[in-house]
Amino acid sequence: MAYQISDECISCGVCKENCPVDAISEGDGAYVIDAEKCIDCGACEGNCPVSAPKAQ
Ligand code: SF4
Ligand code: SF4
User: Own/partner pairs for 6-10, CB < 8 Å, 24+ apart?
Assistant: First the structure.
């Protein structure tokens, strides 16, 4: 199970800077998590100003 970023994302980039495995990249209108790299640490959810990353 990986985290996914919802369309609430405002593309601030904070989650990308804090992901320990560099699983997050900028997408079209929202940031995107690579499910194959994500280790479910939850750091992105904790750092996001709008709580866009959600555990699936
Ligand atoms: Fe990266 Fe952790 Fe978020 Fe997965 S849960 S995308 S490993 S910060
Ligand atoms: Fe989007 Fe939240 Fe990541 Fe910022 S921290 S890019 S709002 S998911």
Answer: 6/30, 6/52, 6/53, 6/54, 7/52, 8/50, 8/51, 8/52, 9/48, 9/50, 9/52, 10/49, 10/50, 10/52
Give me the tens of pLDDT residue by residue for the chain, a chain 56 residues long: 899 999 999 999 999 999 999 999 999 999 999 999 999 999 999 999 999 999 99
Report the nearest atom of ligand 1 relative to the CA of 2: 4
In ligand 1, the atom with minimum distance to the C-alpha of 55 is 5
- CB of 15 closer than 6 angstroms to any ligand 2 atom: yes
Q: pTM above the 0.90 mark?
A: yes
Q: Kindly state if the Cβ of 3 falls inside 6 Å of ligand 1.
A: yes
